[in-house]
Amino acid sequence: MSETEGSREQGEGTESLAHRVPDLAALELLLAVARLGSLGAAAREVGITQPAASSRVRSMERQLGVALVDRSPRGSRLTDAGVLVTDWARRVVEAAAAFDAGARALRDRRDSRLRVAASMTIAEYLLPGWLLALHAERPDTAVSLLAGNSAKVAELLLGGDADLGFVEGLAVPKGLDAVVIGHDRLIVVTAPGHPWARRRRPVSPKELAGTPLILRERGSGTRQVLDAALGGLARPLIELSSTTAVKASAVSGAGPSVLSELAVREELALRRLVAVPVDGVSLRRDLRAVWPTGHRPTGPARDLLSLTRA
Amino acid sequence: MSETEGSREQGEGTESLAHRVPDLAALELLLAVARLGSLGAAAREVGITQPAASSRVRSMERQLGVALVDRSPRGSRLTDAGVLVTDWARRVVEAAAAFDAGARALRDRRDSRLRVAASMTIAEYLLPGWLLALHAERPDTAVSLLAGNSAKVAELLLGGDADLGFVEGLAVPKGLDAVVIGHDRLIVVTAPGHPWARRRRPVSPKELAGTPLILRERGSGTRQVLDAALGGLARPLIELSSTTAVKASAVSGAGPSVLSELAVREELALRRLVAVPVDGVSLRRDLRAVWPTGHRPTGPARDLLSLTRA
DNA sequence: TGAGGGCATAAGCTGGTCTTATGAGTGAGA
DNA sequence: TCTCACTCATAAGACCAGCTTATGCCCTCA
After folding, report:
1. Beta carbons of A106 and B81 less than 8 angstroms apart
2. pLDDT band at B109 (very low <50, low <70, confident <90, very high)
3. Local confidence band at B309 (pLDDT 50, 70, 90 cut-offs)
4. How far is it, in rounded angstroms, from Cα B59 to Cα B39?
5. Measured between CB atoms, does B180 come within 8 Å of chain A?
6. Fewer beta carbons under 10 A from the terminal one: N or C of chain B?
């Protein structure tokens, strides 16, 4: 009813997402049914009884208004709709698993064996996935996670408060050894309605420098890279202090923005933002794993490092 | 930095995700707190009382073992850990929103205004996002979704059972007009441990044709494109009937596979799979919107179409 | 034709989460 | 400096969703 300005949620359906989307346990159950082909077997796998599973699946079907499984005395198979729903469910469960991996690392920070320090972008968008993979290979490794800018990461490593660090940016902090583990590109994005969204001819550096942009504040890693690429000339239309705020502003059509491609992957896929081709400017930046000079990563740190490289 | 409270070390590692990840309502509440800066205001927004919100956030902190918000008599702000957790929560909620958008379309199939027919890959990986965007722009549009192969899509459109279709592949089915709305590339992937994973020199078509691959069954869209590109020479190591199964097989290291880049985006980001460079073969395929010749999309179909183009 | 696996239904219990009612701390303005 | 308006925390009771146990029916296979 009451209009929330700016970032709108799903206000219209009157009921929140949580009431329209089955809970995680139900989604996991559905995945188990899909995999095992039987309600009872799925029930056993997730540790509940068969009637509970039957009822849960039934109520999920009632909630969605769609039949998900064909039950037969020989087992249960997904319907066509069930296949689609299961795929969407899988993505929710994967996001939840990433959440869990991150949260677990955060929780075990104190008494853990592997302490990771990472810049915000990496901590948010890449690390949970890596930790998930690490956990799959070495379930007994307790990982902790600290987030901060490059200087903070360096400080933690040099002070012995972290075992392995990840930074993005142009230079490697003093006292650290590094290896490039990937790349991130800053890309120019606009809302689909903006004139640049339809542009096929690349934007030139001069044009970019001459256009007011929605940017992170001066001093942020993203901004540093952009300023360096343009020779310190970026003109801010608005300056905001979080990536999320910049994204929201760009989506709402306030103007073009420059952001990490990691940060806008979802928005691009959903066509909430469009990438604008740019020419003659290197907005690529290296993602590096770092450690104190001479202290080559060993044990779990080494495992994590090798996971992050192809 | 982030603080941790109430440490309990109990090694219940084998509990399911659902027990370790707060439910969707709690995650939405957390996002509201982050946005509004107050437990009470967030409670109001999600339609519960302030004590309920307080208790929910507290139990979430207990569950995660990490303090998420700094409470003060003037409001509540996220801790550093809270910022990270909120970002991961946002991704879960977004996945849930995509689930909801898809499910909603499926449910309204019968009595809807806009009936969309799409191939599996598009229906699974792209459409939920588009529907989300469409719903944001036109909340009153009821959308239904049917999935099938190209022939099925054509049949639905020509029979008047769908208003707009989406297909991937080489040719446009007879009787339909089409416009290219994007591209999908088949890419060669392997588990990180495979020799090809470290390859810098591109794989040649001959080499690819000579190597047994994990593939979808003959007749699937993916397989058709690959066979066409290689001149019908692809050698299967295993043939599986679902993209998910092929992915699982590739991840487990059984061998190289060829899959849509849309389908393996997550796996690449998590480094569970690695893309192998290929040379001299065009594995790109167009994604097209289609409609019966002469029946240009109008109304909601037109809106959806324009959303899918940059 | 009986055994076994598969699913559905019924009844009762439990636990989590909501509500209302209240208290206590802080800051701003009269 | 008193009071109002705002914040969050706590307590006690109500309620409901979902679990378990105990059945029964259906089908297939030996």
Report:
1. yes
2. low
3. confident
4. 14
5. no
6. N
pLDDT for res B269? 81
Q: Quote the number of domains for chain A.
A: 2
Q: Of the spans A10-14, A91-95, A108-112, A133-137, which averages the highest pLDDT? A: A91-95
Task: Provide the phi-psi class of A295: left if phi over 0, else alpha when psi is between -120 and 50, else beta.
Answer: beta
B39 CA to C18 C1' in angstroms comes to 16
Q: Is the pLDDT of residue B21 over 90?
A: yes
Dihedrals phi, psi of A279, to nearest 5 degrees: -130, 145
CATH for B208: 3.40.190.290
Q: Which residue is nearest to nucleotide D19 (CA to C1')?
A: A52
Domain co-membership, B295 together with B154:
yes
Nearest to B85 by CA among A117, A96, A252, A115: A96
* CA nearest to nucleotide D25 C1': residue: A73
Residue A24 is part of a domain; what is its CATH number? 1.10.10.10
- The Cα of A106 is separated from the nearest Cα of chain B by a number of Å equal to 7
Whether B261 and B195 share a structural domain = yes
CB contact under 8 A, B270 and A145: no
Instruction: Indicate if CB(A65) is under 7 A from strand C.
Output: no
- Measure B216 CA to nearest chain A CA, in Å: 16
Question: Domain for residue B40, yes or no?
Answer: yes
Is residue A83 included in any domain, yes or no? yes
- Alpha-carbon span A191 to A22, nearest angstrom: 32
Work out the pLDDT band at A26, boundaries 50, 70, 90: very high
Q: Are residues A70 and A142 in the same domain?
A: no
Stated pTM of the model: 0.73
Residues A54 and A188 in one domain: no
Q: What domain range includes position A253?
A: 112-310
Q: Are residues A134 and A49 in the same domain?
A: no
pLDDT reading at A232 higher than 90: no
Between these two residues, A280 and A109, which has the higher pLDDT value?
A: A280
Question: How many CB atoms are located within 10 Å of the residue A207 CB?
Answer: 12
Q: Which of B33, B67, B93 is the last residue of a domain?
A: B93
> What is the Rg, in whole angstroms, of the alpha carbon atoms belonging to chain B?
24
Which residues have CB under 8 Å from B219's CB, separation 6+?
none
Asked if the structure places residue A300 within a domain, the reply is: yes
pLDDT of A74 strictly over 50: yes
| C1' of C30 to CA of B40 (Å) | 27
Within an 8 Å CB–CB cutoff, is residue A151 touching chain B? Answer: no
Question: Closest residue of A to B248, CA-based?
Answer: A35
Identify from A63, A92, A110 which residue to disrupt to test chain B contact, counting B C-beta atoms within 10 A and taking the largest count: A92
Q: Is B14 an 8 Å CB contact of chain A? A: no
In this structure, is residue B223 part of a structural domain?
yes
Q: How far is the CA of B175 from the C1' of D17 (A)?
A: 52
A38-CA/D22-C1' distance, Å: 21
B34 in contact with A, Cβ within 8 Å: no
* Each residue's pLDDT tens digit, B241-264: 788 889 989 998 889 999 998 899
Distance between CA atoms of residues A128 and A181, nearest Å: 16
